[in-house]
Amino acid sequence: MKSKLILIVVLCLISINAQEGFVKKFSLPENYIKLSRLAQPGQYFDRIGKKAALMGFESGTFELWIWPWKVMRNFELQFFLGSSTTPILAENIVKEISVTPEAAVITYSYESFSAKAIIFIPVDKTAAVILLDINTTEPLSVVPGFIPVLQPQWPAGIGGQYSYWDDNFKAFIIS
């Protein structure tokens, strides 16, 4: 009964937040075991748990694995100010990276906004979480982009495996 009640409360909260369009900001506990420095966009970066891994570069471009599947590649953020159609690429405005035992924070900074991508991979769960903390002085749209892959980990990929989107099922078909 207790787990059902929690699930209902969570679903209600999701429904309320979906109507507003945003998740209400919440504070994260401060961890004093932290390393910070200026970001180096071409430098390797990862967050790895027992069942998931995010691997890429400090620019914020990465691939995501949920063992044994490569879920996506070329994840990157783009920012659009106001009604502009010209993207501001995250890799061009990355400023700082901070790492604690539980998360990594990549900070992006531009003239009228700053954004923090807080990346968390649970140790024992099949999940990856990226929270965006945005401060802006004008309307801003954030567009995450990626290429879905859904390939099995090597050597399982040998022998013609493939995946594709089936619009009838509204799901990826994986052979």
Question: Briefly, what is this?
Answer:
By secondary structure, the chain is mainly beta. It has helices at 2-20, 90-93; strands spanning 35-38, 44-48, 52-57, 62-66, 69-81, 88-89, 94-99, 104-109, 113-120, 129-136, 140-152, 163-166, 171-174. It has one domain.
Largest sheet, in brief, is: 6 strands, antiparallel
Total DSSP E strands: 13
User: Based on helices, strands and strand pairing, what is the structural class?
Assistant: mainly beta
**Cα shape:** globular
What portion of residues is helical? 10-25%
Counting H and I runs of at least 4 residues, what is the number of helices? 2
Kindly state the mean pLDDT as a whole number? 83
Q: How many discrete domains? A: 1
Order of helices and strands: HEEEEEEHEEEEEEE
**End-to-end C-alpha gap:** 38 Å
**Stretches where pLDDT falls below 50 for ≥5 residues?**
1-19
Beta percentage is over 45%
Radius of gyration: 18 Å
Characterize the structure shown.
The protein is mostly beta strands and 175 residues long. The protein has one domain. It has 2 helices and 13 strands; from the N terminus they run αββββββαβββββββ. Strands 2, 3, 4, 5, 6 and 11 form a 6-stranded antiparallel sheet that branches. A 5-stranded antiparallel sheet has the order 1-7-8-9-10. A hairpin with a 4-residue loop joins strand 7 (94-99) and strand 8 (104-109). The model is unreliable at 1-19 (pLDDT under 50).
